[in-house]
Amino acid sequence: MEKPVLLVQGLVKRYGGIQALGGVDFEVVPGEIHALCGENGAGKSTLVKILGGLEAPQEGTVTIDGVAIDFGQRTDPRLLSIVHQELSIIPHISVLDNVMIGDPRVGEIYIRARYRAEARHRLDEIGLGHVPLDAPASGLTLAEQQLLEICRAMMRGAKILILDEPTASLSDAEIQHVFKAVRWLRDQGTAIIYISHRLPEIFELTDRVTVFRNGQRILTKPTSGWTNEELVAQMIGRAIQPAHSVPAQDLRQRPVVLELRGFELPGRLRPVDLTVRAGEIVGVVGQLGSGGNALVEALAGLEPRYGGEILFEGASRDLRSIPAAMAAGIGYVSEDRAGKSLFLGAPIEVNLTSAILAELQSAGVLRFGTARSVAQDLARRFQVDVRRLPLPVNSMSGGNQQKVAIAKTVAQKPRLLLLNEPTRGVDVGARSEVYRELKALAAQGLAVVYFSTDLEELRELSYRIVTVFRGRIVRDVAVENTSMEGILADILRGSAESGEAAA
Predict the structure, then answer these.
(1) Which pLDDT score is estimated for 494?
(2) Residue by residue, what is the 3-state secondary structure of 89-151?
(3) The ABC transporter domain covers which part of the protein (predicted)?
(4) Mean pLDDT of the chain
(5) What's the CATH fold of domain 251-329+414-502?
(6) Assigned superfamily of 6-236
(7) Residue 16: count of CB within 10 angstroms of its CB
């Protein structure tokens, strides 16, 4: 095997009494795509922070291209660049300026014309050929911003590129743009560390896989030598049971919680009818921009310019604001947990109870003991380490942050729970735990509607799947009557038969 471009030896990192890494050895060679897999909390995020110079270990060394990195400062982006799961795009400046931020070639005098041709070429390669260089980044979709982050790293020409959940918010077509760019970088000799909880991506894209568990490197071998079952078992250290089971009770006898009549969003969603009953879990699927995610956001009070009628528990409701939706008994979990769901610098226990503070006070004074007890109960329900509750939520991995965001909303005891990409960045073990909790809530009568671009998730979690294509519902069927191939066909090109019916 070729000489490693990245060599990690004996890395130890502790946070108080919690050991995040316990003597980890790890290496990557030039021109390979190396998957880093493991549950949330396995040590992947800690390793990435150390490699980027954001954290310093208590023990161990890291060398890049034979040179030891200085743990006291950011790693030179020409040696190693990271595309983090949480975006760092600055919305009010141009696409070109976002691409060039942090580029070592930019000195005190920034002459944009020098970089326009190269930036245009890289944007074209990654599937953003339609995006003007001078347009503000605020006009890009979340998926386009993710691709822009990857373009920024490509411009720096780093020897090592770390991609942390790069496709978590992308559609299938956009994922292929990412894959194309990643393979191109590999062919140029770049070493790529690829972190994803979507196992099909691991098997399709990567050359080798390393599994982390409980702060230890468990096993490294070529991707072709793994099976899906073996990889999952090594990641979680136990056999995993499928969470999906179609409810035995006849849901058609349950009361209607939500009914949409001619509901529409100008330019985004044509008039649709939809009924959701107590105890149902309805998955909404469609490519980003299809109108599926806009439907969920509108029901959460985020889209004031809607038409048609919304009936909630039999009464017509005006849900043109977030307070109106919350007052009606609707809870919402955003796909952007960092920007819209969590207070990143606040303790985990504060985040868990932040939406129900009015219930935890007497005469305007917060009952701290009660609040802590409630936070501990929520943490246990969603498999969050109770010992970490006093720590800031940004000390957690992305997947554990998502569990906190869901638990925080569940604490409000909504009668309709809305979620946008509910397990974005959540590992296979934690996904199963989230699914079980959502199904337990549904069994108690909670209606759940969520938007997802993850076809496996839709099959695993949903009782019904609603497919949206070009702003209209083209299919609404029970999960047992669907296949992943059929769903994919619908979201990519629609169903002629169902499209005519919907019209």
Answers:
(1) 54
(2) CCCCCEHHHHHHCCCCCCCCCCCHHHCHHHHHHHHHHCCCCCCCCCCEHHHCCHHHHHHHHHH
(3) 6-239, 251-495
(4) 87
(5) Rossmann fold (3.40.50)
(6) P-loop containing nucleotide triphosphate hydrolases (3.40.50.300)
(7) 9
